[in-house]
Design a protein that fits this description.
126 residues; mainly alpha; two-stranded antiparallel sheet; 5 helices
C-alpha cells in the first residue's frame, strides 16, 4: 500500500512534503510509511467475481487504523486539530502513547467532534 491509496494518507503525505523540517511530522511520516509499506493495497471496489482475500482486507484495514492513530498524534502535537483536543499542545511521545492506547470506540469518541486540518498554520518542531 502507499499514501495515494487512501485519501487521508495522501493529504498527510502532501503536508509532510511541505513541512520536511518538522521533526515530529517527519517521524510520523516515516512511521506511517513503514506501516503501510507492508500492507496490501486496499480494495476500492469490491468485485464479487474476483474477491479480495479476506486476509488482505484485514491487513490493509489494520495498517490504515495504525496509521490513523499516528496521524492524530502528529496533528495534536503540531496544532493541526480543530477544535483542539486540549487547551495545551501535548508533546509528541505522550500524544503517540495516548492515541495508540485507545481502543477503537474510545478513538472514535475522542475524534468525533474534531478534525485534522493540515492546511492550517501549526507549529513546526525542528
Amino acid at each position: 500500500m502507499n499514501f495515494r491509496d487512501v485519501p487521508n494518507l495522501l493529504k498527510f503525505e502532501e503536508h509532510a512534503r511541505a513541512n520536511s523540517t518538522c521533526t515530529i511530522t517527519m517521524d510520523a511520516y516515516r512511521r506511517v510509511r513503514d506501516i503501510i509499506a507492508l500492507a496490501p493495497r486496499p480494495a476500492h471496489i469490491v468485485d464479487f467475481n474476483n474477491q479480495v482475500p479476506l486476509e488482505d482486507l484485514k491487513a490493509s484495514c489494520a495498517a490504515i487504523e495504525k496509521a490513523t492513530r499516528i496521524l492524530w498524534a502528529c496533528a495534536t502535537a503540531t496544532d493541526h486539530v480543530l477544535p483542539p483536543l486540549w487547551n495545551y499542545l501535548p508533546d509528541y511521545d505522550s500524544s503517540l502513547e495516548y492515541f495508540t492506547s485507545l481502543n477503537d470506540l474510545e478513538l472514535m469518541a475522542v475524534t468525533k467532534e474534531h478534525r485534522i486540518d493540515w492546511n492550517q498554520q501549526g507549529r513546526v518542531v525542528t
